[in-house]
Specification:
The chain is mainly beta. Helix content is 0%, strand content 31%. The chain has a 6-stranded antiparallel sheet, with no helix packed on it. The chain has a 4-stranded mixed sheet with strand order 2-10-9-6, with no helix packed on it.
Length: 228
């Protein structure tokens, strides 16, 4: 599968160390080529520790330690199914593809944390995000297959509001310390673990991002696997 692709508004990136773009909701599927491609650059991205775990913030939804074993959901040796729901902190195991790289991963959303509207100021999005509140979807990836997944991208993670509707995506390019999101590190072989983060926007302070969905290959948007 190609790197994460989605229709998005255009934002000039010249001269900025970190930029973000608002992605349009309602993408048709995880395999649809819909335009611009999210890119990553080793020089623009922060490094991440495999032991990174989510911390609770006021108004956030903290989870057990990211290294805790999964309970419930798919059986340890099983494969997650489209539409399956997991609890925050539980692992879902499934075949993974990023471009020509293929393997098997165990993915767990470890927390959905509420941020502050002021967190969005560095992106200079102005009225486009007026009144919106960022939520940080923190997740852990473990390579449970036999192939090296070095530098593959685990995108396709989006938030959902309490009523089940899609939250607004904010795609960050560059170093955003509140929600670092690298490609998988070099040497990401069997047993290796790393952490990542995706940003979802609630439309107002009166709403919240209550769940997260992974809709990448082999799933599609709206028919992925969710954590709540």
């Amino acid at each position: 599968m190609n790197d994460f692709r989605t229709r998005r508004t255009t934002l000039a990136a010249t001269g900025l160390a970190v930029v973000a773009v608002l992605a349009l909701s309602g993408c048709k599927s995880g395999n649809e080529d819909t335009g611009a491609t999210k890119t990553t650059s080793p020089s623009a991205q922060p490094s991440q520790s495999a032991s990174q775990s989510a911390s609770s913030e006021p108004g956030g939804y903290a989870s057990p330690s990211a290294s805790a074993p999964a309970t419930g959901g798919a059986a340890p040796a099983g494969t997650a199914k489209a539409g399956q729901q997991f609890k925050i902190g539980e692992q879902a195991t499934f075949p993974f593809a990023s471009g020509s790289t293929k393997g098997t991963i165990a993915l767990a959303v470890t927390a959905i944390e509420k941020g502050q509207p002021a967190d969005l100021a560095p992106f200079k999005l102005g009225d486009k995000v007026k009144g919106m509140v960022p939520y940080y979807i923190r997740y852990q990836v473990k390579n449970v297959g036999t192939t090296d997944l070095s530098f593959a991208s685990v995108g396709h993670i989006k938030g959902h509001l309490g009523d089940g509707s899609e939250a607004q995506d904010l795609l960050v390019i560059g170093k955003f310390e509140k929600c670092p999101n690298d490609s998988l590190p070099k040497g990401f072989t069997n047993g290796q673990v790393t952490a990542g983060c995706a940003v979802a926007l609630a439309p107002s302070a009166d709403t919240k991002v209550a769940s997260a969905e992974y809709w990448g290959d082999p799933f599609t948007l709206g028919k992925g696997i969710t954590w709540k």
